[in-house]
Amino acid sequence: MKAAIVSHTVIDHIQDEHRNTIADSLGGPTCYSGLIAKKFGFDVIPVTKVGNDFSVNNKRLLQENGIEIKHSHIAENSPTTRFLITVKKDNRDLFLRSKCEPLRSEDFYGVNADCWIMSPVLDELPVDLLAHFAKDIKENDDFVLLDPQGYFRLTDQYGNIRSVMNFEYDLPSFTALKVSQNDQRILTSGLEGEQAMRLIHSSKRIKFLISTQNYRIDLLYDEMHYWVNIPYIETLDSTGAGDILSSAFACAYVKEKDPLWAVCFGAGAIRAALETRLAGLNKVPSKSKIEHCASYYYNTVSFKIM
Q1: CATH number at residue 219
Q2: Exposure of 88 by Cβ count < 10 A (0-12 exposed, 13-18 middle, 19+ buried)?
Q3: Is 110 exposed, middle or buried (0-12, 13-18, 19+ CB in 10 A)?
Q4: DSSP state of 160
Q5: Which of 102, 138, 161, 237 falls 20 to 30 Å from 91 in CA-CA distance?
Q6: Distance between CA 244 and CA 270 in Å, rounded?
């Protein structure tokens, strides 16, 4: 089976203010979602861009893990997208150091996949291209998960990244939508929690709504509401946790066709990653650890009829 990951491949400079450390790491959905998809036995097809500054060592590291950066992925006239991530006790600050060129329609030519994970990190996937893709994909009835985080970020002239207050576009309907607490507020003009989730689930006409907030993962599907609580885990770095969740849910569902198992695998993958207490890609957990955590959540998941 094949999983296509649509996003810029990035380099994260992760700074921990508490421990006064800084580390560079490959990042972005291409890496975090891609590596999780490989754990589930999928072939990974990146739909991505990097610059000429993307090193041979980085290409080799990804290739050794089954993710190939090809010549067609290289933008000749712009650098690789890079973020400075300052990790604080309960949050993190994002700063854009450089940005690669946006994706174009030709980047999708010839890509056939059983599972699509679309997760722009900033604005590399234009909304009109996303809408065009949505129209085409409906004809094939493919599984598509959208994480709209990149559409809700703005940068100022100094590279500081902040959230938009509102979003004027109507996002296309895909199989699954993964949102954070902040995304809920943006999509519903300030609502949060179950009220926001219900509104998004119905108005966006999606099959699965996955929501993350306060160490809890919610899934709305059909007339059911499932949720899983994850304990607070003190860790060096939680970067990529959302991408890990998206990929684990999507891959588990495509293979098993069971949404309950899928959300448990998503929760299990996040917990397993955070429990490594490692930074960057080193936190991507083993399949056996993910399965162990998923089995625990399958027996403890809460649910109610909506």
Answers
A1: 3.40.1190.20
A2: exposed
A3: exposed
A4: B
A5: 102
A6: 6
Q: What is the pLDDT of residues 62-86, one digit of tens each?
A: 999 999 999 999 999 999 999 998 8
In the predicted model, is pLDDT for residue 16 greater than 80? no
**Which phi and psi (to 5°) does residue 256 adopt?**
-105, -20
Q: Which of 254, 226, 300, 213 is nearest to 36 (CA)?
A: 254
- The number of domains in the chain is 1
pLDDT at 18: 66
Give me 3's structure tokens: 């999983």
Cross-strand bridge partners of residue 190 = none
Structural domain that includes position 41: 2-305
251, amino acid identity: C
Sign of the Cα torsion 190, 195, 197, 202 reads negative
Q: How much is the pLDDT for 88?
A: 72
What are 261-291's pLDDT values in tens digits? 999 999 999 999 999 999 889 999 999 999 9
pTM of model > 0.70: yes
Residue 207 class from Cβ within 10 Å (0-12 exposed, 13-18 middle, 19+ buried)?
Answer: middle
Please state, in angstroms and rounded to a whole number, the distance separating the CA atoms of residues 64 and 261: 29
Residue 237 tokens, joined: 């770095």
Query: Which residue reads 């959540």 in tokens?
Result: 297
